[in-house]
Structures are given as structure tokens and as C-alpha cells.
Design a protein that fits this description.
- The structure is a single chain.
- Helix content is about 30%, strand content about 20%.
- Strands 6-7-8-3-9-10-12-11 form an eight-stranded mixed sheet, sandwiched between helices.
- The protein has two domains: about 1-105 and about 190-205 and about 225-358, Rossmann fold (3-Layer(aba) Sandwich); about 120-190, no CATH class.
- By secondary structure, the chain is of the alpha/beta class.
- Helix 5 packs across helix 7 (about 175-185) and helix 7 (about 175-185) runs parallel beside helix 8 (about 205-220).
- The chain contains 13 helices and twelve strands.
């Protein structure tokens, strides 16, 4: 999962799979000229084929923007300011919209955070799914409609033939998310990006959606990037984890190790800010302060104003993302102290016991 290139802090990949998609020193910039602001600042990572890589961090850390860049769907005004994205050996960061179109759907699929916003409220859901087959696979109207119903059946939507004639607002939140999954998987992409796929769903429905995603991934041999605030979901679903803060990767590695023996104080803070099933009712330890505005990122380590172990070096020197063990990397000057438990930081929750959102 994590980047294998030493100059950008890569660590050896934990699997033998070749990367299906790679980001190298990716920089995403809002605006141009003297007023330009870097929203994502030098992100590098590899995603091996057949694995699930989770990207976690607070809102504003750059997770979703990084995911959108891998689909060629950056918001207006945001451009690739540096670095590259390589999908299956082909550089894609600077493709035109016309060049992106054959890749979306057939090679890359995406589940968006808010299915109600992502679906067209004026078009029946069956027609929206069928459109994927007509535009991307060249099927006729009747065959595309049949394939749309099959896709809805595959993701567990009951009475799919009838429900295909319904509009998005006639579905529950969980069923709308199933429609989004059906659309994302309809053309059998190789890479699935799931951006907060369980946001705003109750706990029971969240579990159902994640079981569905994992089952579809295993059945099709998909590679998946999971963007999530829910560390419980991450601990149960991901092979490896990338932790982002202020537009940078600050830690990466196998999920079990990152979530049980963090190598960055920010990851420690994330783990301590979610409930632990072993300690019901225990007070949560929120990370003090707020993530920085991209226009005024602090000097040195961007996390230092909120870090309980910040020192003079942290305020002036940007820490490189460097190896801290097999397949692990951390952008902390004192990562060895954090991993070793000598950094005077609170004990973290067990990865298998955490539940909730950061």
C-alpha cells in the first residue's frame, strides 16, 4: 500500500501485488499565480492490486480531494500543481476530460459521500444505472435496462424490477447508497474508490453497506480505496492505512500496526478520540484546536500547535515521511519515541475495539 520510493517517505509494500495506482509527490492547487494555495501537499502512495487501502484524517485533511484527483473530477479552480498519478502504468494526472471518459466506469468507479446529491432527482434510478451501460458499454435501451435491474439485484435491492422505476427521494439512505454502489460497479471497474460510503447512515445500515462492499470486492477481485472517518470500519476492512493531516501523509502502514502502535502523535489523537467498546462511558480525549487553514499552514510540522510532544525542532523543520519499520512510515521527528511508548502520550485504543468517527 504505502509508497515504495525513499525520496517521498515510501516504505516497502506489505504485499507482493504490483501497484494498480500510484501517486508521486502529488500537489493539488487552488487558484493560480501569487494567490495560489496548495490543498494537497506532496502526497505519495502506492495501492497494490487486490488490496484495500484506507485514507483517514479529520475533515479538511485532503482525503476526498486526493480521491477526486484519481478520477479526474477535481472541483473548478483546483488543478494538479505538481507530481503525478499513474494508473496501471499510464500517467493520468493531466488527461483531458475526453481522455478521462473511457477510464471512468470501466477502469475506475467511485461511490460518493452523499448519494442524494450524486443522483439526479428527476431521473428514475433504473434509467440512471442503465445510462452507464448505454454510454460506456454501447448497449441498446432494453438490454441496458435489464442490466440495470440485474445490478440492483446484485447489491441487495429488493423488488428491483419495480424499484428501478422509482426516483432517488423514494429510497431510504441505505438503499440510495446501494444504488450508488450498483452504479459504481456496473461496468466492473478494477479500482473502486469509496468516499465515506457510510456517512449519515445508522449503525446497522453502515454494517450492511460495508459487508456488501467487502463481499463485492472479494467476488470481483477489486482494488479499493476507502476514505473514512470511522476507524472501526477501517480496522475491520482495510489492509493498510494512510493518515493525512493538512494535505500531507503523516503516517502509513498495515492497518493493524498503525491502529494499535501509532508512529505519529496525530494518529494517537485520532485513536483516543473515538469510543472504545472495552470502556463504555469513558470520556473521549479530543485533539485540542482545529486543523489549519490551507492558506496559513504553520511552519515546520503542521501539527505542532496541537501536538502534546512538540519541541523547538517541530516548529521550524518540516518532518520527512520516513520508514519507521517494515512497511511503515511516519512524518514525525520523534516517531521512534511514539512507537516505543516513550513520548508521554496516552495509550491508544485497540484497533479491533474502536467504534465511531474521528
Amino acid at each position: 500500500m504505502t509508497d515504495t520510493r525513499p525520496p517521498h517517505g515510501g516504505t516497502p509494500t506489505p504485499t507482493d501485488g504490483a501497484p494498480l495506482i500510484s501517486l508521486t509527490d502529488l500537489r493539488l492547487t487552488l487558484g493560480r499565480g501569487a494567490g495560489a494555495v496548495d490543498l494537497v501537499r506532496g502526497v505519495s502512495l502506492d495501492v497494490p492490486q487486490g488490496t484495500t487501502v484506507a485514507v483517514v484524517g479529520e475533515s479538511g485533511s485532503g482525503k476526498s480531494l486526493t480521491a477526486l484527483s484519481m478520477m479526474g473530477l477535481l472541483p473548478p479552480g483546483v488543478t494538479v500543481g505538481g507530481g503525478d498519478i499513474v494508473f496501471d502504468g499510464t500517467p493520468v494526472a493531466r488527461l483531458t476530460e475526453r481522455e478521462w471518459q473511457p477510464l471512468r466506469g470501466r477502469q475506475l468507479g467511485m461511490i460518493f459521500q452523499d448519494p442524494l446529491s450524486a443522483l439526479n432527482p428527476c431521473i428514475r434510478v433504473g434509467d440512471q444505472i442503465a445510462e452507464m451501460f448505454r454510454l460506456r458499454a454501447g448497449l441498446g435501451r432494453r438490454e441496458a435496462r435489464d442490466r440495470a435491474v440485474e445490478s440492483m439485484v446484485e447489491v441487495g435491492i429488493p423488488d428491483a424490477e419495480r424499484r428501478a422505476r422509482s426516483y432517488p427521494h423514494e429510497f431510504s439512505g441505505g438503499m440510495r447508497q446501494r444504488v450508488m454502489i450498483a452504479m459504481a460497479l456496473s461496468l466492473q471497474p478494477r479500482l473502486l474508490i469509496a468516499d465515506e460510503p457510510t456517512t449519515a447512515l445508522d449503525v446497522t445500515v453502515q454494517a450492511q453497506i460495508m459487508r456488501l462492499l467487502i463481499a463485492r470486492k472479494q467476488a470481483r477481485g477489486l482494488t479499493m480505496i476507502l476514505i473514512s472517518h470511522d476507524l472501526g470500519v477501517v480496522s475491520r476492512s482495510a489492509d493498510s492505512v494512510v493518515v493525512m493531516y493538512a494535505g500531507r501523509v503523516v503516517e502509513s502502514g498495515p492497518s493493524r500496526e498503525v491502529l494499535t502502535r501509532p508512529a505519529h502523535p496525530y494518529t494517537v489523537g485520532l485513536m483516543r478520540s473515538v469510543p472504545d467498546r472495552r470502556r463504555p462511558g469513558a470520556a473521549l480525549e479530543a485533539i485540542p484546536g482545529q486543523p489549519p487553514d490551507p492558506r496559513t499552514v504553520p511552519s515546520g510540522c503542521a501539527f505542532h500547535p496541537r501536538c502534546p510532544m512538540a519541541r523547538d525542532r517541530c516548529r521550524t523543520e518540516v518532518p520527512a515521511l520516513r520508514p519507521v519499520g517494515p512497511a511503515r512510515a511516519s512524518a514525525c521527528h520523534f516517531a521512534d519515541e511514539v512507537v516505543g511508548g516513550g513520548a508521554n502520550l496516552p495509550e491508544t485504543n485497540d484497533a479491533s475495539e474502536v467504534s465511531g468517527h474521528v
